[in-house]
Amino acid sequence: MTEPKIHQTNETDNPIQKNDSHEASSSTKSPYQIEEVKTDKQMQDALSVRRTVFIKEQQVPEEIEIDSHDRIGSETIHFVVYKEERAVGASRLRPYAPEVGKIERVAVLQSERGTGLGRLLMLAMEETARRQGFKRLKLNAQTHAQRFYEKLGYTPAGEVFEEAGIEHIAMEKAI
Fold this sequence. Notes:
- There is one protein chain.
- 25% of the residues lie in helices and 37% in strands.
- It is α+β, with helices and mostly antiparallel strands.
- The termini are far apart.
């Protein structure tokens, strides 16, 4: 079994070091550990965060939230974020088109929102996307989160649409 990739970041450095691990930090050590999912336990932890955020909080039906991309061994790269061994964030990155990756299911537990964790998770996914050879990333942002993604350099691409009963906007970024 391969060791999980763990990403280490700090505010001034590249978000992912060469050892594929990063602990988010600024001048003090951050409590967050972002890992690429490699084990069943990590996948269950990531899905637990997504169930809390999307199914419980936002009332997205489970049959829409959990899909064929949610298994180890697919082309999708899943991420899980731990704080003191508790899963507090999750996301996934998958191939969409030649040289284009799609970021999906970015979720941070309510207790960790506003801490910068979402930004760190996005930076980790962008660095992984570069390593995978993607030149562009796209995502479907919930409209309430559009500004968050714009601050990270994503631009709207199209009109607002509804998905799972929630307004979204497609966004893109060259990486």
